[in-house]
Amino acid sequence: MVAAFCATSGPAVNTWGCARAPRGEWVETLRSLRTNAGSRRVARRVRWCRAAAGATAAAGGESSAETAPAGAPRCGFVSFLGPSNTGKSTLMNALVGAKVAIVSPKVQTTRTRVTGIVVERSCNAQLVFLDTPGIFRAKRRLDRAMVRAAWQSGSGTDMVSLIFDGREFWQSAGKLNDTQQEIVEAVATRRANGQLKAHVSLTVNKIDLVPEPERDALVSRMREVVGGQQAVDEVFVVSALRGTGIDRMRRRLAELSPVGPWLYPEDDLSDMPQRLLAAEIVREQVFLQLRHELPYATAVETEEWTERPDGSVVILCTVLVTRDSQKGIVAGAKGSRIKSIGTQARLAMERLFDRKVHLYLHVKSRKWDENPAHFRSWGLEYDV
Ligand SMILES: Nc1nc2c(ncn2[C@@H]2O[C@H](COP(=O)(O)OP(=O)(O)OP(=O)(O)O)[C@@H](O)[C@H]2O)c(=O)[nH]1
């Protein structure tokens, strides 16, 4: 039994709040490139991109930055690492100036590595951000795969930024929680034994949720507990949601980027394939609209993508749950919820793809979480 719903095209609305209009060339580039290679492939991919572009500068940020001739182009890869729900995706969207990663108040929203690309003119630098799944104590197979992908994403990038929640740190009276502690210790160990050569920064996010008079003391305390463990080179204090500290952070990361040619066309915002972006947009709406009713193992895949002569596109996405009984939760009474998910997702797609979209949604039950092919399609490893 399949529940189906079609959201036909209406007037495009800016539900994404993009700071920069998406462009046709971007969509073309998205089609021709795939980012979500397995996590071990991140380092290889960075090297391959550099070799393909004829770059000569070595990764490692600061040293090459110091010796660079003024005005030389730079290109830096930055990966984010942090506990769930600390605002990594929101931060990447803020740095890129466009919505390329989905965001929800639910933990573990990000399942795969998402790339965001931006040019920082002041340094003639292109920055490529890798947003990763949050780190948490993983028991289930999908969770384990996500956490593994997050840990591995730092290998081979020029910079790693640990994203911690400032309010949480403030509420715990200046103590790191277990996950933060684990991350700091792992980074310090990897740096000490030479496994991690990247520049490491700590980003204290959600500073808007910390009362103003307390902020300086909080950041000093964070520097103390983290810097004292030889884990980080620099601290950024930001509110990704409000945009505070974002320009400064982007500029500094650009200054630290190695000298070398840009690896993507100037207007590119991401190199995720369109089909994957479409599925992510639907998944965001499923997360936002189901909230606490969301079945754990919900996934979305794009089954069809058909271009029409009038320039519009027909997209068929399937929302996958693992049990028949969960289909009704996603569909809602008389299909009202899936209809609303479809409407919001379509509007977001029209904004992002800059064209009319006819979106069809199906809800199916399938044991997708036991299928290695699904994991691979998201760049995750399947363990047995
Ligand atoms: N007040 C406030 N909220 C924020 C800020 N940054 C992110 N948030 C909120 O925090 C929640 C989680 O944000 P995400 O960007 O999805 O967090 P994430 O770290 O990518 O989450 P995972 O995918 O679970 O790892 C969302 O509700 C955001 O709106 C911030 O600077 N201030």
From TrEMBL:
Keyword annotations: GTP-binding, Nucleotide-binding, RNA-binding
Region of interest (G1), ranges: 82-89
Residues of the KH type-2 domain: 290-367
Residues covered by the Era-type G domain: 74-259
GO molecular function: GTP binding; ribosomal small subunit binding; rRNA binding
Coiled coil: none
UniProt name for this protein: GTPase Era
Species name: Cyanidium caldarium (Red alga)
Organism taxonomic ancestry: Eukaryota, Rhodophyta, Bangiophyceae, Cyanidiales, Cyanidiaceae
